[in-house]
Fold these 2 entries.
Entry 1:
Amino acid sequence: MDWLQQHLLTGIIFMPTFGAGIILLLPAGRREVIQRVALGSSLVTFLLSYMLFVGFRQDATFQFIELLPWVSAFGMGISYHVGVDGISLLLIMLTTFLTPITILSAFDSIDNRVRGFMVALLVMETGMLGVFASLDLFLFYIFWEAMLIPMYLIIGVWGGQRRLYAAMKFVLFTLFGSLLMLVAILAIYSQGHEQFGYYTTNYLELVTLQIAPGAQAWMFLAFALSFAIKVPLFPFHTWLPDAHVEAPTPGSVILAAVLLKMGGYGFLRYCIPLFPLATARFTPLLVTLAVVGIIYGALLAMVQTDMKKLVAYSSISHLGYVVLGIFALSLQSVTGGVIQMVNHGLSTGALFLLVGFIYQRTHTRQISDYGGLASAMPNLAVVFLIVTLASIGLPGLNGFVGEFLIIVGSYRTQPVGAIIAAIGVILSAVYLLWLVQRVFFGPPGAAVAEVSRAGKPLQDLTRREWAVILPMLALIVIMGVYPQPFLRRIEPAVDHLVQSYHASVTSVPFPAGRNETSLSMEEIQ
Amino acid sequence: MLTWGDITSTFPELALVVTALGLLLLETLREPPRDKLVWVGLAGIVVALVLEVGFPVYGQFYSGMIAVGDFSRFLNVIFLVLGGGALLLAVPYLRKTLEERGEYYSLVLFATVGMMFMTKAHDLAITFLGLELLSISLYILVGFYRNRVSSNEAGLKYLLLGAFSTGFFLFGAALIYGSTGSTHYDAISQAILNDTHLSSALTLTGFGLLLIGFSFKVALVPFHMYAPDVYEGAPTSISAFLSTGPKVAGFAALLKLVVVVFAVTTRHWWGAIWVLAALTMTVGNLSALRQDNLKRMLAYSGVAHAGYLAIGILVGSLESAFGIIYYLAVYGATTLAAFGIVAAIEKENEAGLEVTDYRGLARRNPVMAAMFALALLSLAGFPPTAGFFGKFFVFSAAVSEGYIWLVVLAVLNSLVSVYYYLRPVVAMYMETADDESPVVLPATLVPVLVLLVVVALGMGVFPMLLVSNSAVAAGSLF
């Protein structure tokens, strides 16, 4: 048991790659075996990560640490160093929870080159888990970049008509940010050498660095640019709609649900602790961009004619809340930001899945082709409505917890931002409910009519589709009704983050906010 | 006085020379066993490898003209592997084009000996001899296809420009001899250190001219003009050798000169080297963007990589020397394999070299497609391939010395390079061919691909083997 505890995190990170290795050894023709192996290995990963969730001590320290020297000539101090705190724990859980679901949904939606797809998806899971678990700057960068190629292939090989354009745009945008981040990492690395007398990329040591304000500013911008592109923050978002629309459904799900979270996670893990002074300086900029993104994404979502594009723009809007919460830098708002990342992963992931289900039956995503779907597919309509309401932030569903914490928490530090964000909530209700209305109610649209003319009535959710969507629905409800187990794990880490940020920016420590959050949680219920 | 020790210090080279001469003799037989010649050449390489690695020698030999140590040993292993690769790649290529002759194998071995002497050299005369042995063998090899106009043109172009650059090298060496009174590395280095007014114009000018000579060999902009034409016209198996061997040998010899002899002088030239590096990577990458012919694209990619390496030369610290050596090993293996695949896909009459000819390769031969993608991703510097580590080491050495803007320029260049490195990947995986007939993987390509996987992927995940050897090699220079 001890051995397992010590290597649990490594096991979680590399279990998907192990599965991918097995799949590569299977002949490409054995489709069902390949699908089962992929699903199996991602389920094992999830079970292992559940052990992580249960075994996690609820404090601010990093746990399940594993540290092995990796590259060490000239005391280069690059190591394989992984560990989790409350923030990364939740995102790891999100990843391991959604990957099996995505793989299961790919059983139906991916029918050519199944082996390659499963390998790419599993390798990408390893990359994402590695990003969330790394405690070494170098290792983090490796994982950060390593998942670019699988995603590139997923969009480029299995995508829609303009897939080549979208895939290349995705890679070039993301790389542009991350290569500048690499320069900043190199600069921190050499700063560390000056201050400690030895080279190290150990995150836990580097956060103690005292970097001059001027240097902090450009390093912060280099990191922030990379994360802002990933989130994506307005005005770096233009790759996202293309990538989402062209990606196959499972690709969109992973992209929206997990990949984008790496940006928010990066802000929390690297930007704020490493460069507190620069954070204080650039907070107004980032909050402004976040708020503009909330409104801009919502307005654009409103005028979309393509369902997938609508969901993509709603992502931009919803992730604006995350960034607002993070840079409002109060305990509630940051906690809300983390929870909102998970919520967005669940609800937007589910929305992409549902749009994919519909698309598979009718082969169109144009909203104007639809109408009256609710009478043909009542179950799907109900599920879609629940997910939509969660996404809007209806109390009792998960979206509410995050949005509420963010808006309440940021009102104290960023009142204007909080007020505009609250308007954004109304806008999101408008475009999402309008979408539901146009697609599911009213007279039957062209696509629906055509299918029924062909004599095959639209089939409601199949058993496999239920299996895909039900776990997500369950979690949406659980997190809405009883978010405590999640909040309890996040709070100590966020508290530590916020406290040490305020401690390094001002000499007056920020009032401990532990009780306030539990207070606000009581208000929620 | 020639001693037994002197001779043992050059055993690997002697083994190769004997093999090469033997190959020439075999070729004169009435019915030369041409399909077996390659094995003779490979046997020579293996013997030389065993001698190099198994019987390590340290110290200066031949009256101090040759210095053998960890640096020369590690690089010579790279040269031998590259030479062996060039032999293996040639077999299917020469057979396909009905030009299998013994001179080819023999000349590759002679070129390898030249490279080995360039790193063992501890005297400008020996450096020059090594350089010439390498160059002259390559002039012939580039023009090896007597009946191909493109091959002749490439050979002539390479000969003329190569001879021109040799002139620069010699003139530089002469000036340095004039100012320091010696061609021996240690003596020159002493003379420079003792020289109170550093700016001794002769040494400075001489080093500048040496730098130009090397810039030709490793194709730094603006001395790179010949590279794409020569690489395109040369037999593809020779392009593979040409884009790896001379570049690795040139940078290794330059590194040794910069670190051991001209550390002070280099600092006076830093502005010029800065500009050379910046120009080389930018022009190389931007030109590669416009190429549809894979050989030309890889040629410009080689130019771009020379630019990254020039950053390491500019920095000149222990860390950067280590970075350069590591980078050279990885670059050599990946580029060799990339050209190897290009050679295997090329059809007779120089067709099948365009990006569009790679459409659907993922279906027509999944292994070759995956390998080509791996080589390209490593060249582009995607983690976790070894290509990323090479860039990381060189760039981090540069940032420690304060060359942040040059590194910013370098990473932006890597971004540009991703576009053209991914073009063949797009063609192989995301487009379909009109002709979906399977492509055959030549058996002799397999060892090269194994080398690629071991270096590009293996050394990316478990980099310590290559890292520690490069570190020892770099350390022995200081």
Note: Residues 281-488 of chain A form one domain.
Entry 2:
Amino acid sequence: MPITVKCFANLTQFQPENSEAFDISDNETAGSVLDRLGVPTGQVALVFVNNVITGRDTVLKDGDSMGIFPPIGGG
Amino acid sequence: MDKILRIDVGASGGPRVTIADMGDYAGLGGRGLTSAIVNAEVPADCHPLGPENKLVIAPGLLSGTSAAMAGRISVGCKSPLTNGIKEANSGGQGGQVLARLGYAAIVIEGGRQGDELYVLRVSKDGATVTADESVRMATNYQLMEKFQPEYGSKGAMISIGTAGEMRLSAASIAVSDVEGRPTRHAGRGGVGAVMGSKGIKAIVLDGTGAEVHKPAHPEAFKAARKEWAKGLAKHPVTGQGLPAYGTNVLTNVINEAGAYPTRNFSTGQFEGASKISGETQAALEVERGGTATHGCQRGCVIKCSGSFNSKEGLFVTKQPEYETVWSHGGNCAIDDLDIIAEIDRLDDDYGLDTIEMGATIAVAMEAGVIPFGDGQGAINLMHEVGKGTPLGRILGSGAAVTARAFGLEHAPVVKGQAMPAYDPRAIKGIGVTYATSTMGADHTAGYAVATNIMKVGGDVDPLAVEGQAELSKNLQIATAAVDSTGMCLFVAFAVLDQPETFQALVDLLNACYDWDLDADGVAAFGKKVLSFERDFNARAGFTPADDRLPSYFKREPLAPHNVVFDISDEELDTVFA
């Protein structure tokens, strides 16, 4: 089943080509997707699922949207 | 840095200059000094453009030293936008130069006599004030052309464009940057209008003979300075994120969080966000021969700025910041970085607050003056403001006045000042700051976004009610202290996360002034500054009823989270209980 996955700032290199329809398996977690994309754990500061900040253990479902960010700030 | 320079513009025979020692204000700097002087010397019930108001310009406590990031300059007065106390601070070279000339503050006071415009020149030998008809209705870049041969690379200029001269409530005060350009602004609250009301068009600082401020304990200061720079370099935000992408790196994350105010705060996500994001902007700047990493002042190690060139490779403006890209971009449904950069240039040139102007144009769009997304229309409106047409004067008076003129409820303001680039319904901590800050809606007054979204300095859920008042309170206290040091507020990312970097900042102050501050002392200092401001605002007529968001934020849900601002009035009142 497909989800959307976007990587931002200096993690854009890890964004998959099929980011709008990235296939996941049943009960796959956010952490598993991060591992499959090869994003080094230490470089990830924020993981959003459907616009809510979440953790690696969140189980994904069909049509979810994931956003992955390194540490950032501004204002 | 132990003198206060006073300019009485109401003196008979023309403005009179006096120089005095610090007196009762010793030990204060930056926001602490501007708020102390305004609170003590300005009648709280005065008209902001009248003779009783004063404009106070003060470098921070550590400005003029050799410490990194210490050159912010504070501008204080009674605000014509909020009718309360105001401190707006700016980067650029002005803070360092003024401090190194030995001045803790310039105070411009008295009632302007006649219609003359004046240029104030400050050097190590003193100050002069000269009438100059040639600056009338000059823009900031025109003033740069005229005065840069004087201030050169060692000095600086502090100036108002046409908006300040017309005393518009959205007018800023420009401070020249490393290249001498008027790209840094004390933006908020209409401080430029107060400078205009005093008839002072430009302050030219001659840097000749300016000397680095010597700390009381040079060896201790040197050690603290090293630890300070090390701490800033090693934190991922101050050492990597901000230098690479600038503040506009926030577009994507705030949009992802569903808190990106779009089309005059009517929804929390903008479909064109990726076209105007920091990532896109940085790549475009480099592709066009500009730079994505640049400091606005010497001694900056974070370097969050850059330079934005046209398609032809010619300089347009400094890298527009996140707040500007949002206000003139997503909030107006404009997804074109070239349009946004052109408007940024116009804000700098006419001397206008980018947040207030973007918020105002979005209100005008909702009113139907021009459609949402109309970039050229927005540029045309900016020229109306800069030239002072009747419509332009309404827009240049800010979002609240514009909404009133067009009969709209949707004015996203607190105490008359427009909200910045975070919707308070989806980042509730910043909503508490907007509501309760002494400054009106001001993200910098207590940047809860750091803890709500970026998880710097802890972790408080942005959508939760619990913990937001306490978070905002502590950040407002810390910020009032940091704003008094002259340090750029971006140091807070490292200071909040790294105890040794916080300690380095305390050590810098102690070594500089022979103090023995500890963490409690820093908090007490911040509280003292806030007490000056709260005291002034109370006497100006503010009550707890003013520490509120507009009621439609409590009534109209924001997509995609479909949330309202649901922190109770009682909870808001605990911030300063």
Note: DSSP finds 23 helices and 17 strands in chain B.
